[in-house]
Design brief:
The complex is a heterotetramer of chains A (529), B (114), C (543) and D (709).
Chain B: H1 2-9, H2 14-37, H3 41-66, H4 70-100
Helix pairs in contact in B: 2-3, 3-4
Chain C: H1 2-20, H2 26-46, E1 63-66, E2 71-73, H3 79-98, H4 107-126, H5 130-139, H6 141-151, H7 156-189, H8 196-203, H9 208-225, H10 234-241, H11 244-269, H12 271-297, H13 302-321, H14 326-357, H15 368-371, H16 373-387, H17 393-407, H18 422-446, H19 475-493, H20 496-509, H21 513-522, H22 533-540
Antiparallel strand pairs in C: 1-2
Helix pairs in contact in C: 1-2, 1-4, 2-3, 2-4, 3-4, 3-11, 3-14, 3-19, 4-5, 4-6, 4-11, 5-7, 6-7, 7-8, 7-9, 7-10, 8-11, 9-11, 9-12, 10-11, 10-13, 11-13, 11-14, 12-13, 12-18, 12-21, 13-14, 13-17, 13-18, 14-16, 14-17, 14-19, 14-20, 16-18, 16-19, 17-18, 17-19
Chain D: E1 11-12, H1 21-38, H2 45-67, E2 72-83, E3 92-101, H3 103-126, H4 135-154, H5 158-176, H6 183-214, H7 219-227, H8 235-252, H9 261-264, H10 270-279, H11 284-291, H12 302-322, H13 327-348, H14 351-378, E4 388-389, H15 398-411, H16 418-431, H17 436-463, E5 469-470, H18 486-491, H19 506-521, H20 524-532, H21 537-543, H22 554-557, E6 566-567, E7 570-571, H23 572-597, H24 599-611, H25 613-623, H26 628-674, H27 682-708
Helix pairs in contact in D: 1-2, 1-4, 2-3, 2-4, 3-4, 3-10, 3-14, 3-19, 3-21, 4-5, 5-6, 5-10, 6-8, 8-11, 10-14, 12-13, 12-17, 13-14, 13-16, 13-17, 14-15, 14-16, 14-19, 14-21, 15-17, 15-19, 16-17, 16-23, 17-23, 23-24, 24-25
The chains are: A mainly alpha (529), B mainly alpha (114), C mainly alpha (543), D mainly alpha (709).
């Protein structure tokens, strides 16, 4: 028992680092020293960087093999990814949390009141949520999976509520929380059914059990319904149809830095959870019983699940893009765009082990960079102390804030899938994966959707660069902190720079999921002769 | 006592499992229906708890069926998480109540497509 | 190989330099950069060992970029793509030189984007990898859209958005088709590889029903770019609104990406589809010729007129290409280059008087021969080149395109049967008459006749923002037009080297066609386009 | 087909490349002129250079004539040439810059370069008022024209011919539009180019058709293919070749239906009218048919069509010419009419007659135009024959008057002038033809000859004879619309009381004299035939080229096997001489009566005609050129223009506005459909989500689970 525990613990060093960081920032947030409070984001960053550094040392092959994980090498890629994106998410929030209060304190209008400050808590929750997402990679049973997902979610509810001021974040929080709770119940019930069908909570056991079922007459209905419920429940996390309805409101209502967080971390967590669950199901070795009783070997997920995912993918990308067309609020538009991108990402889930999961994670990297850069650029500017909201605020942004205008335009182009930005490579590899899975229909749907998405992304690109400045946009100023701008520029440059390194990136993704495909396909042969 | 324990660990009849599962499904559905129909935030939250408990009951029933304790362990975790959610929910509800002085969920519909 | 990359990268680097240097140096820097790029390409072309080669040079594969996806950074030219790249690189410095006084606002961005545009086009022409081609092809949209949207006329945003979305939608189909071929290659060989030759080799072996769809998908993408008849409406608007340099490069290089795409991808990859659809494309091309010519006739806006004439001219180019015989293909490729020269020069000419009078309306302005004799000489010269006067460049392409169409008959002696023939050529030939009509009407209005100048703007430069320009062309403007004029004349008098260079490429492109066309003709009822699903199903199940 | 064709074997002779200088020199002089224009040269340098270049070209051609021994092909450089597969016929396209020199080429080049030189000299004086402005441009145009014309005639393939064909069209365009600030000149230039383009299309299609059937467009190979019986792919294709080529010839030579551009082309300076629109360019159509004569027998009715069209044009143009008042217009219609004769000659089978008439016509028509130009030059653009009278009595105008008289005699085919013989050759062939319709055409030709004599001398008697009276034109050159501006002109200052016409000087007079002598001289071959019974030089030149005479038409004409045909009881030659002379002299006499003896009676006759409703339309229609322009406008231009407007509207508002923008709006409309789902109410979202879950579950359990198990 001890032998098996120590590798598991070693694998958790990054999470521990984050946990320590969370405790530290929570405590230091109560400090009366302004400089200490201002250092909180950077302490958070330090914790994140430390966790990145810890990964290669702790996530060795030996440790990973010893932990008996479903996807032994997944964490090696996903954890640094989460932490690295976390760094920019932190930086884009510098100076935002408690901003008004801190200004009042600085001007001496108000004394420091430990009861009212939220900055320490915010960063603590930030780290805890990221920690939850990281923990998902280590999940080896459903309990861990459930707890990790909840650990991702619960802090985000609070972050939405306390990260800004006014009633909109609170409205967003209440919607997010209540609907989130409902979705949790849905996938929890799915867990129960899956457990009932397979008799175990261990993912490896579930996988083998399902493989046995598949080898017989197919996965039984209890497990199928359970998996469908889990899928639907997790759709909430990945903002996919039919559980995406909250997203526009919450994204719009939440403060920009929280929106940025919401658009990446829970989504990555949701997809990782889905990858784990679907790896248990497996993308191969399923069979259809033809009417004449002959077994027909069938590639991909079992029919009902793949069909449901297919519908989810198509509907998600379509509804997301159609919704985004009509928006006048930039953040709300980006929320719909986030939904649409989830639809593309589901393609990777359908395509499955190997290329599909690779494409999924590659696209997550691309999407993370692009979306964080966009939100960072939005967070770096404000109008009369309020967040940027409508497109007319951005009109002619180039004149006063050229760098932010360019970043927004660049990211819009990357999001639409314009080469040679990273979004293009993400998309193209997703298409390749879909081809590998014979999902020509999905490719066509995605292609049409990409074309439709051009309608609104082009607007996002042209408004800051081309439109003449409006009366509203004349009042746009830069926020006091330079860090959001830095984050925007770095991520913006990354949308180009990463495409130069896309080969390296893809290689990294592959090594992390190679074992995934190996373990998923141990009962079957490879896709193609 | 030992007899009770041993009877607890004998394999339950399928009908009993079915009844337990049906109850769990009913609980879950009741929670869902309540969630959809009630407007009071606290009651809505309680309804989500009801759904959690439905899932938990199903878990216990299956654990019982499989003679496996891990399902029951899971239920303990579910209860814990539910408690955490309750704390969070109440905090949030208080926050909201302070701003609008109402617990009606319909008071919070500023966002959304105009 | 290094020289190719050099010529592609130099403009981008120059754009970078412009971005960080003060804006008063922008135009000179840009000019120098584009000249360097041209020099690099010219040096490569000078040493191009096989002007007669029908294959790529160099043959060595490029570095792998995205290993798993089979995308590699390989560039190379055959003579056709080299000619088109040379055309682009040749026009870049001239466009920049021509914009010295036209662009007064946001100067750095303009030259920066313009150079990036040039790089992107060069990359598309040079790419040996389908994805690399797509990157160059698609990215051209970004700088072009910005150039139109920032520096264009009053409706610039509508024009830019329409151009972007239209082309983007089309190229999405093309991308899907290319990926599909990549996938077929993956099935056949076990690895992803987007090398164009490899893809072509795979695609020609596909069942003809598949090729039909493949061709259609590729065609949609390229037809928007060409643009072919019903898909053309973005072009007049874009041309009308774009600044002069933008119009020039749009007409001369960007539209050629469409025809080049047909030459490089659609036709060689899906010969079965091409053979079946050749008459459809030909009919559309002919409609384009007649339709656009007639519209030209009643245009009063000089730029729109030239824009519509581009549609008509490229219709003829497509017709030649889809005659599917060497004469037509030679003519089409030759025409691609020469349409770029003469139409580009016409746009430059129109830009020059627009700079002076701020109007393109031929009802308001006219008789400029009195005021601007030198300009008038150039205008007349390029108009004649565009009309297709023998001895100038336009003629060779036009004549061969039309001839190719004419001889593409069922029982052609040329060894390349076709389903077009004299009737197609006769109707398309009406376009020659119309071209003379609308271009001479244009000349009659703006060059000849009594002098008419817009009211209130009689003295050039009275416009507040306009820089002082001489009433006739200055030396700089002559330096812009003169090289193009010389090229037009030279190619008209001495087309032989270029025809020889194109010939093997044209034959290589057409290698599968005689057999395919004969197959199509043999089937009295054309193959019903059976859904591609049937072929899908066969791959769906693992044997 | 009647056996082997008699086209001699072609020799490749690179050593004759110096003949190419005849093409190159005009081009060089064009370059010099362009440079002169750019440098704003104010002296006569452009004219001198052009004249010199043309003179040298002429010398070269003369040299080539004396060195000529048989058809040669002279390769110079490769132009539009490429091949595929194995090459050879049908697998290559060969259009090189090479020369094909045979007697027909030399025949044509001799008068083209010769007349070119003379007219350039004439123009050097005529255009001197424009020195420093359009002078260089003018001679640039002339040089370009001579370059293109030489390429047209000398080229060894149809692509070269096409190059020259369009090149002369360009020169014509530039020179008609020489006075570019006059809208009528610009319109006329445009009209000329576009109408020629219609013909050019026919020519181009003919060239393609030749290639499609013979695999080559080089004369030598085409003739060789013909010699060996030809290769036919499709009958329909073969037989349509002559008709396509014919269309090109009709366009360039201003025949029905493409003749209306030529009268308008008189907007150009008069030397241009003389050189391009009378003597040389318009004969390119004759050259084309003569050059490709064998191919006109590919369809039995092709030559008959040429004959009919030619005769109809001759008659129609003559009727119009009778009713015009502008001297140049009269001459323009006479040109069309005479070209009609040439086509009639080609059609009925006498290429000799046609080509000989081309030669004589070139001289006398150039002469006539140049005299008209001299008058116009001296009388400030006055060309209305009602406003000029008795010029031969005005000092300094005698040479003009009498050279004009020579020209008029020739044009009216006065007996024993050169034109009389050339016209006779044509009419004789027609009248002695075995075909009844050709004989009919011959009579029509005779009738037209009478009309020609009438309208020609109508001009001379009005302008040069009678009492002295003249009015100056409105400055440079007046508008040619019939009498529209009569009122203005009458008011203009410049009756003979105050106006002093400046008489022509040595260059104009000299050239006129030389041309008059030339017009006499071209009669020499005919005189030699008639009086010394030698072979006609022109006939020899034509017969030893591809334009062999009547080889395939023997059965149609019957002059080879039938006994000597008779006419009016006489030998056909004699008969025709009598009838032709009568027609000519009769026409002249009528003209004398109406326009010299009793000028009032002409007006009375016109008035009398106009009074009678059944006759009144005839003079009206003749004065309005039979309304052909208006008919063309109504038939072609107007419907096309309406169609274009509709298309333009449709393109903008339907194709772009409705279809493209409409399709772009579909996603927006769809987006609006889903909008109510995002109402903002918490419960609403919960219901939608739960509903979605329920739907998916229901669907999964009912459809799929039932299906699988």
């Amino acid at each position: 028992m001890i032998e098996s525990l120590s590798p598991r613990l070693a694998l958790l060093v990054p999470e521990m680092t984050l946990f320590v960081g969370a405790v530290v920032v929570a405590v230091l947030g109560l400090s009366k020293q302004r400089s200490v409070r201002e250092a909180l984001p950077f302490i958070t960053c330090a914790a994140l960087i430390a966790s990145i550094v810890a990964v290669p040392f702790t996530w060795t092959d030996d440790n990973a093999q010893g932990a008996h994980l479903l996807l032994p090498m997944l964490g090696r890629f996903v954890k640094p990814l989460l932490a690295a994106m976390g760094v920019w998410l932190v930086l884009l929030s510098v100076g935002s949390v408690d901003r008004r209060m801190e200004e009042l304190i600085a001007r001496g209008r108000q004394p420091f009141d430990a009861q009212k400050v939220a900055r320490g808590e915010y960063y603590a929750f930030f780290l805890l949520s990221l920690m939850g997402a990281m923990l998902l990679c280590n999940a080896h049973d459903l309990i861990w999976l459930f707890l990790a997902i909840e650990l991702v979610s619960l802090p985000t509810y609070i972050m939405v509520a306390v990260g800004g001021n006014g009633s909109r974040p609170q409205e967003a929080a209440v919607k997010y929380f209540f609907l989130g709770a409902m979705s949790t119940a849905v996938f929890l019930y799915g867990f129960a059914l899956l457990y009932g069908s397979t008799g175990s909570l261990e993912l490896l056991v579930i996988r083998d059990s399902l493989a046995t079922q598949a080898a017989g007459n197919g996965i039984d209905s209890l497990a199928t319904i359970g998996i469908v419920l889990i899928l639907l429940g997790l759709c909430f996390k990945i903002t996919a149809v039919p559980m995406h309805f909250y997203a526009p409101d919450v994204y719009e209502g939440a403060p920009t830095h929280v929106t940025a967080f919401l658009s990446f971390v829970p989504k990555t967590a949701g997809f990782t959870a889905l990858v784990l669950i679907l790896t248990c199901v497996g993308w191969t070795g399923h069979a259809l019983i033809a009417p004449d009783g002959v077994r027909v070997q069938y590639l991909g997920l079992p029919t009902p699940i793949s069909a449901i995912l297919w519908m989810i993918a198509v509907l998600t990308m379509t509804l997301g893009n159609l919704g985004a067309l009509l928006q006048t609020s930039v953040k709300r538009m980006l929320a719909y765009s986030s939904i649409a991108h989830s639809g593309y990402l589901v393609l990777g889930l359908i395509a499955g082990a190997g290329a599909g999961i690779d494409a999924l994670y590659l696209y997550l990297v691309a999407y993370g960079v692009m979306t964080i850069a966009t939100f960072a650029a939005l967070a770096a500017i404000e109008r009369r102390g309020e967040e940027i909201n409508s497109f007319s605020d951005l009109a002619g942004l180039r004149v006063r804030h050229p760098a932010m205008a360019w970043v927004i335009a660049l990211c819009a182009l990357s999001l639409v899938g314009m080469p040679p930005f990273i979004g293009f490579f993400g998309k193209i590899y997703l298409f390749i994966a879909a081809f590998e899975a014979n999902q020509l229909g999905l490719v066509i749907a995605a292609v049409l959707n990409s074309a439709v998405s051009g309608l609104y992304y082009l607007r996002l690109a042209l408004v800051p660069l081309v439109s003449p400045p409006s009366a509203r946009s004349q009042e746009v100023t830069r926020v006091p902190s330079r860090w959001p701008q830095t984050a925007a520029i770095v991520c913006g440059v990354a949308t180009i720079a990463l495409s130069a390194a896309v080969g390296v990136l893809l290689q990294a993704v592959r090594t992390s999921t190679d074992s995934a495909s190996a373990s998923a396909s141990h009962t079957s042969h490879s896709n193609h002769p | 006592m030992s007899e009770a324990l041993s009877s607890a660990f004998t394999i339950a009849a399928p009908t009993q499992i079915s009844i337990a599962l049906a109850i769990s499904a009913i609980l879950f559905s009741l929670g869902l229906i309540g969630f959809l129909c009630r407007r009071n935030l606290i009651i809505m939250f309680l309804c989500t708890e009801l759904m959690f408990q439905g899932a938990a009951l199903a878990m216990i029933a299956f654990a019982r069926m499989r003679m496996d304790v891990s399902g029951q362990v899971f239920v303990i975790f579910i209860l814990t998480v539910a408690a955490a959610e309750a704390a969070l929910a109440l905090g949030l509800v208080v926050l909201l109540y302070r701003r609008r002085e109402t617990l009606n969920s319909e008071a919070w519909a500023d966002l959304g497509e105009s | 190989m290094e020289l190719i990359w050099l010529s592609i990268i130099i403009p981008v680097l120059t754009a970078g330099v412009i971005a960080i240097s003060p804006s008063k140096h922008a135009r000179n820097t840009a000019f120098a950069g584009s000249l360097l790029s041209l020099a690099a390409l010219a040096l490569f072309a000078w040493n191009f060992p096989a002007w007669k080669a029908g294959t790529y040079f160099p043959m060595t594969a490029g570095a792998h970029w995205v290993h798993g996806a089979g995308v590699s950074l390989s560039v190379g030219f055959d003579t056709v793509s080299l000619l088109l790249a040379l055309l682009t690189a040749f026009l870049m410095p001239l466009c920049i030189l021509g914009s010295f006084t036209a662009i007064t606002d946001r100067v750095k961005e303009f030259y920066g984007w313009f150079l990036v545009l040039g790089s992107s086009i060069l990359l598309a022409f040079a790419a040996r990898d389908a994805i690399l081609f797509y990157i160059g092809y698609e990215f051209t949209l970004v700088p072009m859209t910005l150039i139109v949207a920032i520096y264009g006329g009053t409706e610039r945003r509508v024009a830019a958005i329409k151009m972007f979305l239209y082309t983007f939608l089309g190229s999405m189909f093309m991308l899907a088709a290319l990926l599909y071929v990549g996938w077929e290659h993956r099935i056949a060989s076990g690895a992803w590889n987007f090398d164009i030759d490899a893809l072509t080799a795979t695609a020609v072996r596909l069942p003809s029903a598949t090729q039909y769809w493949l061709f259609a998908a590729l065609m949609i993408g390229f037809a928007v770019k060409v643009p072919l008849f019903p898909l053309h409406t973005w072009l007049p608007l874009a041309h009308d609104q774009a600044p002069t340099a933008g119009s020039v490069i749009l007409a001369s290089a960007l539209l050629k990406l469409g025809t080049y795409g047909n030459y490089r991808f659609a036709l060689p990859m899906a010969p079965a589809g091409g053979a079946e659809l050749m008459n459809v494309v030909a009919v559309l091309s002919i409609i384009a010729i007649i339709y656009a010519s007639l519209i030209c006739w009643v245009q009063t806006d000089a730029k729109k007129l030239i824009a519509y004439s581009s549609i008509a001219h490229l219709g003829l180019c497509m017709l030649g290409l889809f005659a599917l015989n060497p004469m037509g293909a030679e003519g089409a490729v030759f025409y691609m280059v020469n349409h770029g020269l003469s139409t580009g020069a016409l746009f430059l000419c129109i830009g020059m008087f627009y700079e002076r009078y701020h109007t393109k309306d031929t009802d308001v302005l006219g008789g400029l021969a009195k005021r601007m004799p030198v300009w008038s000489c150039f205008m007349v010269f390029f108009t004649l080149a565009s009309i297709g006067l023998p001895g100038l460049n336009g003629f060779v392409g036009e004549f061969l395109c039309l001839g190719g169409t004419f001889i593409a008959e069922h029982d052609a002696n040329s060894g390349y049967p076709g389903v077009l023939g004299p009737w197609y050529a006769i109707v398309a030939g009406l376009g020659l008459i119309f071209a003379a009509m609308y271009l001479l009407i244009l000349l009659g209005k703006i060059v000849w006749g009594p002098l008419r100048e817009p009211h209130g703007d009689v003295s050039h430069g009275s416009h507040a923002a306009a820089p002082a320009l001489p009433s006739d062309l200055g030396l700089r403007e002559i330096a812009v037009l003169m090289p193009i004029a010389i090229a037009c004349l030279w190619l008209g008098v001495q087309p032989k080297p270029m025809l020889d260079a194109i010939s093997p490429c044209a034959q290589r492109m057409l290698v599968n066609y005689p057999a395919q066309v004969e197959r199509v003709m043999a089937e009295s009822i054309p193959v019903a386009p059976t859904p591609v699903i049937t072929s899908m199903k066969t791959t769906l199940k693992v044997p | 087909m009647n056996g082997e064709l008699s086209i001699p074997q072609v020799v490749i002779a690179p050593e004759l490349a110096w003949v190419g200088l005849a093409i190159l020199l005009p081009l060089l002089s064009a370059v010099v002129c362009a440079i002169c224009g750019a440098l704003r040269v104010k002296n006569k340098l452009p004219a001198i250079v052009t004249a010199l270049a043309l003179a040298i070209s002429f010398v070269i051609i003369v040299q080539a004539y004396f060195a000529y021994s048989g058809p040669v092909q002279v390769p110079i450089f490769q132009w539009m040439t490429f091949q595929w597969g194995a090459g050879g016929p049908f697998h290559s396209f060969t259009a090189n810059c090479s020369l094909y020199i045979d007697s027909l080429t030399l025949y044509w080049m001799l008068f083209v370069t010769g007349l070119g030189t003379l007219i350039t000299i004439y123009a050097s004086e005529y255009m001197e008022g424009d020195r420093g402005s359009g002078y260089s441009r003018f001679f640039f145009g002339i040089s370009i024209f001579l370059f293109a014309m030489s390429a047209l005639v000398l080229g060894d393939n149809l692509a070269m011919l096409y190059l020259g064909w369009e090149g002369v069209g360009l020169a014509s365009y530039l020179l008609i539009g020489y006075n570019y600030d006059r809208p009528s000149a610009v319109a006329a230039a445009k009209k000329a180019f576009i109408m020629n383009r219609v013909g050019d299309l026919g020519l181009a299609l003919g060239i393609f058709m030749l290639w499609a059937n013979y695999g080559t467009i080089q004369y030598s190979e085409l003739f060789a293919a013909m010699n060996s019986g030809g290769q036919s792919a499709v009958d329909w294709h073969i037989s349509v070749i002559p008709f396509l080529l014919m269309l090109g010839a009709f366009g360039k030579s201003a025949q029905i239906p493409l003749f209306t551009w030529l009268p308008d082309a008189m907007e150009g300076p008069t030397p241009v009218s003389a050189l391009i629109h009378a003597a040389t360019m318009v004969t390119a159509g004759v050259y084309l048919i003569a050059r490709l004569y064998p191919f006109f027998e590919l369809h039995p009715e092709a030559l008959a069509t040429v004959a009919w069209i030619g005769c109809a044009t001759a008659l129609l143009a003559a009727t119009i010419g009778m009713a015009q008042y502008d001297i140049k217009r009269v001459f323009a219609y006479s040109t069309i009419s005479q070209l009609g004769y040439m086509f009639l000659g080609l059609g009925v089978g006498t290429t000799f007659g046609a080509c000989y008439h081309t030669l004589t016509h070139a001289f006398f028509k150039a002469l006539l135009f140049l005299t008209a130009g001299a008058i116009m030059h001296g009388f400030a653009g006055q060309l209305d024959l009602r406003k000029l009278s008795g010029l031969r009595h005005v000092a300094g105008w005698r040479i003009v008057s009498w050279t004009m008289f020579v020209g008029c005699l020739w044009l009216s085919a006065f007996p024993y002038t050169a034109a009389f013989f050339s016209k006779d050759a044509i009419l004789l062939q027609a009248l002695t033809s075995a075909r009844a319709d050709f004989r009919f055409l011959g009579w029509m030709g005779l009738f037209t000859a009478a009309l020609t004599a009438y309208y020609t001398f109508r001009v001379w008697f009005r302008v040069c004879a009678g009492p002295v009276h003249f009015e100056a034109g409105s400055e440079g050159h007046h508008d040619h619309d019939d009498g529209h501006h009569a009122q203005d002109r009458r008011d203009a200052p410049g009756t003979h009381a105050t106006f002093h016409p400046h008489a022509p000087r040595w260059a104009i007079n000299g050239v006129l004299l030389i041309l008059a002598i030339g017009a006499l001289a071209v009669g020499l071959p005919a005189y030699k035939t008639v009086f010394m019974h030698e072979d006609n030089w022109a006939q020899q030149m034509i017969a030893h080229s591809s334009a062999y005479e009547g080889a395939g038409l023997a059965d149609a004409h019957g002059h080879s096997d039938a006994p000597t045909p008779t006419m009016l009881g006489m030998d056909a030659h004699t008969g025709l001489t009598v009838v032709g002379s009568t027609a000519s002299v009769g026409g002249i006499l009528v003209a004398w009566f109406f326009h010299l003896r009793s000028r009032k009676s002409a007006d009375q006759l016109r008035a009398a005609l106009l009074r009678r409703w059944w006759l009144g339309w005839i003079p009206t229609a003749m004065e309005h050129k039979w309304y052909v322009d208006q008919i063309y406008h109504a038939l072609f231009r107007l419907p096309m223009w309406i169609g274009a407007q509709i298309l333009n509207f449709g393109d903008r508002h339907f194709l772009d506005g409705v279809l493209v923008d409409g399709i772009a709006k579909i996603p927006l409309a769809l987006g609006r459909v889903f909008r109510p789902l995002y109402s903002g109410a918490l419960q609403g979202y919960a219901v939608t989500m739960a509903g979605g879950v329920a739907l998916v579950l229901a669907w999964a359990s009912w459809v799929w689970l039932r299906g699988v198990h």
